[in-house]
Amino acid sequence: MAKESTTIDVGEPSTVTKSSSHIVVDEKKKGFVAAAAGGGYKRGLAIFDFLLRLAAIGITIGASSVMFTAEETLPFFTQFLQFQAGYDDFPTFQFFVISIAIVASYLVLSLPFSIVSIVRPLAVAPRLILLISDTVVLTLTSAAAAAAAAIVYLAHNGNSNTNWLPICQQFGDFCQATSTAVVAASISVVFFILLIVISAIALKRH
Question: Is the pLDDT of residue 65 over 90?
Fold first, then answer.
């Protein structure tokens, strides 16, 4: 009796499965590369943010200290009157000192959030907190600098319509100190604008 042989035809592996698996792997690689690239430039922004905050801390502390120590006494006086000018003689300058001191304290407290943004550049929460807080503090800094600048302008130029005479011809050192403090506060305003722009760019998805 003849034996019949049975042949089983095994087809070639499906190329569709292979190609689809390659596509998935390629997409994952592209995703990893894009995430690494995004984290790289965001880490760079976070480092720049940290350095700006350090510089702003020095400027705001300097501005508050210079205004706080601004005082001058004229060498001539009478028996009942002494000519003296100090920051505490002007409520606007008092507001400036307190406000800029608060701003400097905030900048110190914001450093840990900036460090977290460096370590985790793709984290959204710390960057969003910094964006909102910087915007609020920018308002306070601008208000203090603008109010003090108005008083400094009157001290230098006076106002002929109201017969307010300039005092900087007599209190030159006092006016120099207050002007320096206002300029420093104005520089810190520019720094805060840069910080807000950095946070906005870092929060973009692409």
Answer: yes
For residue 127 the two structure tokens come to 């960057």
Q: What is the tens place of the pLDDT at every residue in 134-158?
A: 999 999 999 999 999 999 999 888 8
Token pair recorded at residue 63: 């501005």
d(CA 179, CA 183): 6
CA distance 128 to 200: 8
Distant-in-sequence, close-in-space partners of 200: CB < 8 Å, separation ≥ 6: 131
Return the ∠ at Cα 40 (arms to 36 and 41), rounded to 5°: 130
Q: How far apart are CA 69 and CA 135, in angstroms?
A: 29
Among 5-9, 131-135, 176-180, the range scoring the smallest mean pLDDT is 5-9
Give the span between the Cα atoms of 27 and 141, in whole angstroms: 47
